[in-house]
From TrEMBL:
This is D-inositol 3-phosphate glycosyltransferase. The keyword Transmembrane helix does not apply. The lineage of its organism: Bacteria, Bacillati, Bacillota, Bacilli, Bacillales. It comes from Planococcus massiliensis. GO terms for molecular function: glycosyltransferase activity. SUPFAM superfamilies: UDP-Glycosyltransferase/glycogen phosphorylase. Residues 175-346 form the Glycosyl transferase family domain.
Amino acid sequence: MKILLVSNMYPSEAFPSYGVFVQNTEAILKDEGFSIDRAVLTKKTGKAQKALGYAQHYANVVRKGMSGKYDAIYVHYAAHNALPLLVLKKLKPSVRIVTNVHGSDVVPEVASQEKFQPNVKKLLGQSTMIITPSHYYEKLVKEKYQVRTPIRIFPSGGVNAAVFYPNKENNAELMATYKLDPNFRYFGYVGRMDVGKGWDHLLNGFAAFLNEHPEEKAKTRLIMVGSGKDDAAFFELRKRLGLEESVVHFPLMKHADLAAIYNIIDLFIFPTTRKGESLGLVGLEAMACGTPILASRIGGILDYTKENENGWLFEPGNPQDLARGLAAYNKLSKEQKQQVGQAAYQTAQQYEQKTIQSKLSAIFHELRLKK
């Protein structure tokens, strides 16, 4: 079976983590014996480069779709790829499209994303199959678009166990690598400094936790990994809250470095406020390293986080509730924390790439039977 993979997000040497889960799904399909061709766009910077990049990408999608003999076109991100695919579908009605929807595809985060919604609805209606990362997101798609297209669930490429695994016995060595003081214990965050990611609620919640438990200032620090449009606001808020020494910042990291951070930290904090948080792969990556999570009670996170079993939940956008979660975690015994960490690890194994790859394969084999 020959598949054309279409995405406006795909890793490059300069941006190795950009759309890496798209690359993961490609690897899974190849491993399952499918033949894969690509029409993808790597990250561009600057308005002119982005405009040119998208123009070339759209032309490439239509050109390959018209000339190539593909059994299916597999698209990630409906919002930014709908236009060329709708053109292609009009020119070549026989083409079969499998649309994998994510995040802002269905729940726009800023006003400028609303303009894509009519095309998203059209594309989903004209797709042969829709893939969503979670049961939560499946429900959103059904409610919003009232589509009759069959929907299948596949968790965004899954977790790569060759990269994300427990390695806490080497924490001293890992801390030295990242120049972290071993006299502190660390909480952690991984994500863009951008709208809806909750980095500001985390800073406010962590500040409240330290203010309510001043003894923690001498033994607890927060690692925040990521960059984005709100970098300047992040640094300003960190300074205003007096957290410059307590909050350690790293820019974007490769997956191997993220795995090290997940192992160094005692608790991963996932403060997203996005209703379009279709799965939350970073939470599962942390859990795969045996690290429990304290996460917003929202989105696809609820598919895998069980309160007081493999993690804890707090009200989205509520720094005080986040602070209460940190205080509650602090009261647990070492054995209780280890027990939750082990449960987190066991949960993440259900999303490991080798475990789930047959699910993606089955979706495309089902498509073959629909001929």
